[in-house]
Amino acid sequence: xxxxxxxxxxxxxGDLAHALEAAAMQLLAExxxxxxxxxxxxxxxxxxxxxxxxxxxxxxxxxxxxxERSMADLVAAVRDALAASGGPRDALIAGGSAYVRFAVExxxxxxxxxxxxxxxxxxxxxxxxxxxxxxxxxxGSAAVAAGLDDAADALGVWGLVHGLGxxxxxxxxxxxxxxxxxxxxxxxMLPH
Amino acid sequence: xxxxxxxxxxxxxGDLAHALEAAAMQLLAExxxxxxxxxxxxxxxxxxxxxxxxxxxxxxxxxxxxxERSMADLVAAVRDALAASGGPRDALIAGGSAYVRFAVExxxxxxxxxxxxxxxxxxxxxxxxxxxxxxxxxxGSAAVAAGLDDAADALGVWGLVHGLGxxxxxxxxxxxxxxxxxxxxxxxMLPH
DNA sequence: TTCCAATCTGGACAGTGTCAATTTGGTGGA
DNA sequence: TCCACCAAATTGACACTGTCCAGATTGGAA
Lengths: 192, 192
What we know:
Chain A is mainly alpha-helical. Chain A has helices spanning about 15-30, 40-45, 60-85, 90-105, 105-115, 130-145, 150-170, 175-190.
């Protein structure tokens, strides 16, 4: 378990909020958010067990930041995949595949993004809300460009890749199977 | 918070395993599995904080049983919906809708079923494995009956309803929207 | 330079999962 | 009938957690 480079000069840390965030993201790569304790994060940042409370309201506050960072990464992965692809059909499949791949490669980050105990869509964060909107927008316009024509179709795409990503991350089906299902199911949905 | 009728006669409980299970299922209707403590369940069953250890290996053991019971309920809901419907297309849509509805109506039960920290598909339980197989079988044969033709299609159906159920339970879209998406997306997938 | 507000520390408390040692009460064998 | 035994349940203890509180320390503004 690596420590985050703290560069402390003395009593005051300087940029503890980011240090804690970085330490927590490192832990999130190894274990589920549920198993990450505030004290553990404080220890990793080489700071007293109470220091985090000056930068996050509580444990949930930290997890919210982890969710925001993870969501930004997820959106970026989908955005890049969409941009890198040729035709609109391939782009939609590539975007969906990127979504599934992210869920499998960053299972704990993916979980915390959609954990209702961390982020309640009813009370969206200023950072999280636009990210969700962007994700829906990316999938929606990719779906339209590929030949689908309404909001329900876009949500269908989201639901499909989200479900496959979740099942895949939980170990219920292997990644290559999930990716094949993404391609074939989207292929069935699209007009041909 | 109701106590489960314990009918204790004395020092020995008689059927503590089931009493604990019932108490925990009752708690699961109100709060996520993550927030249910072993001691709380023991208290609800009117028993010492260590009594559960004679019936479950540890906290995870209890949660596994909750997952098995919840999965049985989910499978039953899908099975009933499939059986109650007329044509094969309607049946598939009804089964998918039942899946989504279960996720929304029993969000904590649905969560614990697919929580990789509770049930790892790599080491399946004797009770859980056949339930998962039955669920896949139900969705698979319904998909085939409706006109889809291979395993990938069946997994696509599962992925779609699982994703929509998860997103819906997490509050990312309302139930009626999700049900409409189930119908329209499955309609697109099916040959017409 | 003085003083303040933000930051960090230590101590404390209730709650938790789990281990260990102990008590209880029914059951099978003499 | 009695007694030894065993599973079930108990109390006690420990380390760990989130969070509240009071005090210490600091950088920077007045």
